[in-house]
Amino acid sequence: KVVLENMGSDVLILPNIYPIYRHFYKIIYKFAHAVIQDSYVSQNAGILYGASLINNKVIDVGVDLQSFSPKLKFGVVRNKLGISDDEKMVLFTRGSGKIYNIDTIIQTIPIVKTHFANIKYVFCDMRGDFISKYNSLIFKYMCIDNVFIAGNVNHFNHLPYYYRDADVVLSVPFSDSSPLSVYEAMACKTPVIISDLPWFKDKFKKDTDLMVVPVRNVKKLANAIIKVLSGKSNVNVDSAYEKVFKNINYITENRKLEQLYIKILNDT
Known about the structure:
The chain is an alpha/beta fold. The protein is 41% helix and 13% strand. It is built from twelve helices and nine strands. The strands form two sheets. It has a six-stranded parallel β-sheet with strand order 6-5-4-7-8-9, with helices on both faces. Strands 1-2-3 form a three-stranded parallel β-sheet. The chain is globular and about 65 Å long. It starts with a strand and ends with a helix.
């Protein structure tokens, strides 16, 4: 039996950059007994390129709620990085690729600094090219003292403490399917700001569970950060946590996957 998994970038980005992928998918889908993906956005894109409606399921990776939790000890990462409890911490954990709009994030720093002079932006899981890509921009906006580059962080042992200590988490790419980092931040009851893309609309309520800003809009992103840090946003971290707990729990998602495997094994 063949199960094909659609990753977000596979069906949302590559076919637009390389049209040959559209033909590739139309061929390979013919050999699949089932198709899985982590969002309806990716599912619809796959169907557009020929995926069958039969045994076609949206099943997320899901959050390990034992590792990512609001019950984690506060201050572990702040102590490690030398960030005091009264300093505000903005966290980014997605990667250094162009898709993630890190330049937009960096450009918010001088704006946010007018309200929080000692603001700290922490970038996790950055590859070695982060410095070469963004160092000149950091110096241009004179924010070297406001930026921490944490490098690679162990996902289950250390990353939860970054989410726990952050005052807000940013996830503002120009394309997305179902970002686990957003759900993990919510599982730690940390407010999240995302870019306005279709993926979240069947999962969360705008300006209640999270804040939503236009893609690559520096001023609106900066204002959203300031609003969250000032305690003036309407983000309800308890509501966001409950939705992750009920709908994006890795235990329940794995059960869905098991049920699909059993079904296709029994199909004649």
